[in-house]
Amino acid sequence: xxxxxxxxxxxxxxxxxxxxxxxxxxxxxxxxxxxxxxxxxxxxxxxxxxxxxxxxxxxxxxxxxxxxxxxxxxxxxxxxxxxxxxxxxxxxxxxxxxxxxxxxxxxxxxxxxxxxxxxxxxxxxxxxxxxxxxxxxxxxxxxxxxxxxxxxxxxxxxxxxxxxxxxxxxxxxxxxxxxxxxxxxxxxxxxxxxxxxxxxxxxxxxxxxxxxxxxxxxxxxxxxxxxxxxxxxxxxxxxxxxxxxxxxxxxxxxxxxxxxxxxxxxxxxxxxxxxxxxxxxxxxxxxxxxxxxxxxxxxxxxxxxxxxxx
Length: 310
Fold this sequence. Notes:
Distance between the termini: 28 Å
Largest sheet: none
């Protein structure tokens, strides 16, 4: 679930914090923060998958209360239960892997009942819900599609949702929520297809599990040399090196460390990833600036025989 795009983002963010807080923040502490940050991202994945289960349970209790009130209406006695009988939600609730993780990490929204009720009301008022309930036929695929669209159009776009996750962890932001939400929707599709490995592991393989730590250490170790190269290229390009924002410098140093350290990652992949990071996390002109400096850096490193891969 935690892919290299996300790992690069977290490495840059933790490295930025590390550079601002030295010497109070040691390398070991920064590495622990990186591990914690990635672990919390995987926890967020489980929080988002837990939400449909808990919202459905609240709606089920509401229907039971309506049936048992003093003067129930015909609709109270015979409600449309299509929403609470959703097959995807049942699969999420019954999944042993999800249940164990939730128990071990206390993953629940029940400690914020106001938020849960608010989010459920928003779901029930949505056109997606009303269109779904109006359909006579039902299937696992349709049930999964409902929650994929609710996640994309109702839940992840809600300001209260952003506030709720940011209050739960300092490591979570709206960007984390949106990126993790994509993996949640992918998992919903995999559950609909009844794939045995529908729930994504934290890392795809052993290489990904150590990629962040190795990249961070290489970035710190090589920073003096990479900073010197950046300063040389900035001067040659007639930029003022003293005006480079810290985030741009960190992004470029991390990109250069990846270029030098990871022979299996194509140069074009590295360049594209860090140019996108500059566009998303730095100033409006950072993408173009980082693009120019990194491409010149690649030419310089190849000329000196320090970069041999394609």
